[in-house]
């Protein structure tokens, strides 16, 4: 009986690579701003602190995106939300390029950047939901790996390709923005092969209710689902991890700013942030996922954060040459990919089922807090003390985050142990 009733609502399993393509626009925005526009703004005389502040501000929508996440579930379809938000994101990058031409449009650039990042979060939410509903259980690990590879690869593509076009092909920044918009359009093509997931019985019943009733139902269901996560030891630790600067990869947001310290050309910056950077990050995603299947996931995530600390110190001490920049920046990009895969694996482990897409977005929102504030701190440190000190500050912040998490882990485990002893004694 159960099998028969569930069959009409089952969605066909989608090939995992589709989610790599669909998530590309989400990554393009960050890469375009953090690499191509950052490089052009630096050449125009904008300070590193101002550029880092703009990049840090771009993480604000990603920090608060859980507030508008229910819209994707309450109205329209996931495919329609993806199509509309992705097209607006593409036009947003064109507008960002237009307003980045000189410092006089800094205010307009900031506003357009925030709007574009908001629309890109909606695009990402639609992909999260499509992936959760259109992937077979036995393929969800592979889908998550492709998903993160597309996210980081999209960032590398948005930065490296745009900068390469501007520097080598001598096209305008505005023209590079139109190329980014074209990539957003191409990313919509997989929707032709991905039908809208079938409605569950609960969704079918809710479709006949008022919008207010559906909204209340989503909120109450979400609160119960979230509380079940927070009340668990693993869920509480995952929330703590989200706020801590472990594996933030903030240095990778400033490759363009520090390129001159390494005597690196624009082509080298494009290489590190583009094709080579994308391959390194994607390899890190796959490697990190492999490690997470063989180690306790919180331990694996902390190891990935420690690897970033070590690489930051090595970069501070290494000879400042273009070759060193390519090798060490690529190694750091691998570590960033590993940390992203580790975070996804950790979150997927603790959120379980239920409102999985919304819970994932809440965790992802929180995880953007340390990326934003560490990027801002790095920019301030670079302007005041130079690149070497900035890298050491980054490493110190990472060590502090690991120590805080170790302390939280000891406290949570000791309380759980004491509670278990009390229950045994009773």
UniProtKB/TrEMBL annotation:
It is found in: Membrane. It comes from the Bacteria. Its main location: membrane. Keywords: Membrane, Transmembrane, Transmembrane helix, Transport. The chain crosses the membrane at residues 17-37, 44-61, 81-99, 106-126, 146-166, 173-194, 206-224, 236-258, 270-292, 299-318, 324-348, 360-377, 389-412. This is MFS transporter. The keyword Transmembrane applies.
């Amino acid at each position: 009986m159960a099998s028969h009733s569930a069959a009409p609502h089952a969605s066909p399993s989608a090939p995992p690579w589709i989610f790599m393509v669909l998530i590309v626009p989400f990554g393009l925005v960050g890469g375009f701003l953090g690499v191509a526009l950052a490089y052009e703004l630096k050449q125009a005389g904008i300070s590193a602190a101002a550029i880092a502040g703009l990049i840090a501000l771009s993480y604000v929508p990603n920090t608060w995106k859980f507030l508008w996440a229910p819209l994707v579930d309450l109205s329209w379809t996931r495919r329609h939300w993806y199509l509309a938000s992705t097209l607006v994101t593409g036009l947003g990058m064109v507008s960002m390029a237009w307003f980045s031409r000189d410092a006089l449009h800094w205010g307009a650039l900031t506003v357009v950047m925030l709007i574009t990042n908001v629309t890109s979060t909606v695009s990402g939410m639609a992909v999260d939901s499509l992936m959760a509903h259109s992937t077979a259980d036995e393929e969800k690990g592979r889908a998550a790996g492709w998903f993160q590879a597309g996210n980081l690869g999209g960032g590398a593509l948005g930065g490296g390709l745009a900068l390469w076009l501007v520097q080598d092909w001598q096209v305008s920044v505005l023209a590079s923005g139109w190329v980014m918009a074209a990539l957003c359009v191409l990313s919509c093509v997989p929707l032709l092969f991905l039908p809208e997931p079938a409605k569950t019985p609960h969704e079918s019943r809710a479709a006949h209710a008022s919008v207010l009733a559906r909204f209340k139902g989503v909120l109450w269901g979400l609160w119960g689902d979230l509380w079940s996560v927070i009340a668990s030891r693993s869920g509480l630790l995952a929330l703590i991890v989200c706020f801590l600067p472990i594996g933030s990869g903030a240095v990778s947001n400033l490759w363009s700013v520090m390129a001159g310290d390494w005597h690196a050309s624009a082509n080298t910056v494009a290489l590190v942030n583009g094709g080579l950077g994308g391959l390194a990050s994607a390899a890190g995603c796959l490697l990190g996922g492999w490690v997470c299947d063989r180690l306790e996931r919180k331990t694996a995530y902390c190891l990935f954060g420690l690897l970033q600390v070590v690489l930051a110190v090595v970069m501070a001490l290494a000879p400042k040459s273009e070759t060193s920049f390519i090798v060490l920046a690529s190694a750091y990009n691998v570590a960033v990919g590993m940390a992203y895969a580790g975070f996804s694996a950790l979150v997927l482990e603790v959120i379980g089922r239920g409102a999985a897409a919304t819970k994932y977005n809440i965790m992802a929102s929180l995880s953007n807090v340390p990326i934003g504030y560490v990027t801002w701190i790095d920019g301030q440190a670079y302007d005041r003390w130079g690149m070497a000190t900035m890298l050491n500050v980054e490493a110190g912040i990472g060590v502090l985050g690991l120590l805080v998490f170790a302390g939280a882990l000891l406290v949570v485990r000791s309380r759980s142990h004491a509670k278990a002893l009390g229950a045994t004694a009773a």
